Amino acid sequence: MFMLEAQDDLVLVRDAMLVPPPAEGRGRQQASGVLTPDGQMVENSISWSNSQEAVNTAPDMPETHEALGGSWMFGGILYGHFGHFIVESFARAWALAELRGKIEGVLFTPKQIAGNFEHIVKALRPLMDAMGLDVPVRCIMAPTQVEELYVPRQGVGMGDLTIGSRKFRDFVATHTGAGIAPEGPERIYISRSLLPPQRGGLIAESLLEEYLAEEGYEMFHPQKHSAAAQIAHYKAARDIISVDCSPLHMVAYVGNASQRVGILTRRSMDLAPSFVRQMKEFKGIEAFEVNTLVQDWVQGRALRPGRGSFGEMDFPRTWEALRERGMISGTKPWPPLTEDERQADLERINAQHEAKFYPLDENLALQASRNKPEAKK
Question: Order of strands, edge to edge, in the sheet holding 218-220?
Fold first, then answer.
C-alpha cells in the first residue's frame, strides 16, 4: 500500500540511472524509473494510480546509457492527456518549493516511447507555467545517468490519493494559478458537447445546456481556452455544474470555499466521491454528487463504461436534486427524455464515431447468456 506522507519524501541520488520504458512497451504499466548506481529501484520513483496500483515497475540496469551533468529533479511519468497530467505528472511538483534555484529543471520519463514528446512538452508549457511547474522540462527517451537527481515522493494521485499530501496541497495553494485574477461568469457548466470523438459525455447534453442556460449558466468548454483562462473562470464562478471529468481536479486546485459544485454522474464508475473529497480537502468547496444515471451507453459490445462512454441521466430527478441544493431555482421540472430525443442523439453519436453504441445492460445480458452452459453445447 502506498501512503502519500513519508519521512524520506525527497531523496538525492548521485549518478542516478533514469530509465524510460522499453521501446516495444505498450499500455499503462511499464518498467521504468530511477535506479541507484548499483541497480536498486529508488522507491520514490514508483508512480501510483491509487494506493493499491503501481504504474511503473523496476527496470533492468541498461547495458548502455547517455550522461547528463548537473542537478535535476525527477518528475515522474509525462502524460499528454490533460487529466492525467494535472494529477499524475504534476504530482511531484511540490518539491520545487524546496528545490527551485538548486536544479537545472525537471526530468520525466514517457508513458511509452512512441510519440512526439518534444511537441507534447511544448504544448503543455503554458499549463505547466500556470500551475507552478515553471522550470525547464525534459522527457528522457533513452537510459541516462544523471549526475545528481532529486527524487520526490508522489504527492497526489487518483482514487483514494486525490486528497494529496500536505506538502502538495501547500504548493498548490501557493503556486497554482498564482497571479491569475478571477474572470468570468458567476455560473458555469463545464460542457463536453464540443469535444472530439472518443471522449464521451451525456446523452442529450444539448437539452441540459438549454435548461441550464435558462438558469443563468454559461456553457464553458475548457479545451477552447488557455490554461490561464480556465483557471480564471474556475476562480470566478460561484456555482459550477459538471459531469465527473478531469477539469474538476483544476477546480479543486484553484477554487474557493464560497463555491458550490454539482457533479453529474455520467458513468457507473463511482468517480464523484473522490472529486468531492478532493475539493473539500484542498479548498473547502461545497461539492456534491448528483447520481441519476439511467444507463451507460458504450461503443460496440464493450462490457464496462469508460472515458468514451455516454451516460443517460434522469432529467426530472436531476432537476430536483440541483434545485434542492440551490443550484437552480426554476419551478418547472425538466421533462423526461423522450424516445425520439434519445434516438436522435444516439444517431448523432453513432455517426460521429462511425460505430454503434449499445446499452451496457444489454451487452452484459448478452455476455451472460453466452456464458451459460447450455449456450456452449
Answer: 218-220, 187-190, 239-243, 260-264, 286-290
Computed over every residue of the chain, the mean pLDDT equals 95
Task: Kindly write down the DSSP assignment for every residue of 103-162, as one continuous string.
Answer: SS-EEEEESSS-S-HHHHHHHHHHHHHHHT--S-EEE--S-EEEEEEEEEPP---SGGGT
pLDDT score for 299: 96
> Which are the contacts of 43, defined by CB distance < 8 A and separation ≥ 6?
none
CA distance 147 to 160: 35
109, 138, 141, 145: which is closest to 23 by C-alpha?
141
Q: In this structure, what are the phi and psi dihedrals at residue 284, rounded to the nearest 5 degrees?
A: 70, 25
Cα(22)–Cα(25) distance, rounded to whole angstroms?
5
pTM as predicted: 0.94
How many CA atoms, within 13 angstroms, populate the side-chain half-sphere of residue 245?
Answer: 27
Could you tell me which residues come within 8 angstroms of residue 142 by beta carbon, excluding any fewer than 6 positions away? 20, 65, 66
Which grid cell is 360?
451496457
Burial of 345 (0-12, 13-18, 19+ CB in 10 A): buried
3-state secondary structure of 107: strand
Distance of CA 144 to the CA centre of its chain: 29
d(CA 218, CA 317): 22
